Please model this.
Amino acid sequence: MRAALQFSSRCLPIALFVILQSGCSIVASKIPYILNEEKQLSIAIDEYNSKHYKNAIEKLSAILSAHPRTLRALEYRALSFRQLHEYKKALNDLNQALLLDPESAYIYGMRGRTYSDLNDNEKAILDFTKSITLDPSVPWTYYGRASTYCDQGEIYQALDDCAKMLEIDRKDAAAYELRALCNFKLFKKRACIEDCDKAISLDPALINAYGLRGNANADLGFYEAAINDFTIGIAKSNAYPPFYLHRANVYRKLNLYSKAVADETALISKRYDLASSYAKRGYDYLQMKKYEHALADFNEALALDPKCHSAKVNREIALFWLAHSKDKNKLE
Model:
């Protein structure tokens, strides 16, 4: 009877039906106990779906304390840990889940994503490959492996996986977005733009596609198009800092220094890449002949990163022009 109770909770209603129909002897009091566990699991999953990850972990841990072999509880607790960036804890749960279900393509895929989160690309690729071997029909496992290949510079392997994703679904927006990244890294900027266009037409919420297309447009000298992409990205991403960074770089190329300063100020307010942001804003102030502002920013950059080369060099230039302007004012 103990063995009958140690199955995955996803099978509970079926298992109860089989036990009752088969005429097996079962203590009546166990039935509400099993149903109660299923209800507790359902509540925990609702917490996960509502993005209350800590509450989900608490409820799933209570289930696992009583029933450590509840597979779905292990899976959802691992998912919750991943959402909280507690990747090693997620990995522990996925390892336990694979002991219960060693042929699960889904669990191998999730463990591959977790290894990728931990920057263990070799193990990530092994798990994604195992998942694909067990079930070659799931696009997101190809996506996970392709992303990992792309991160470590194996671009052509990544492109092969993008092709497999598109064989499964020609309207897979994420596949086009990832292929755009591969083309960008291969310096195929026009192909990158075409893939971004396709990705955005299929799913306008893919904000990374706007960033990729913006950078490709900027590299090709299509500055207004690039600014437009970064502006859309800012609006759609709730002001994701890198979009300000890239737009400021384009403004700088167009000598629109006051607009670049505004974007760098936004970056600083979000505490994003502070030393570099102060150094770049200082440079833009320098071009605007606001030497005191420039000097203050270079000082801030060097306080954060004493090795910031651009801040060191441009600080000397700011000091020179500040002294020169003061001497000129004295003569006048």
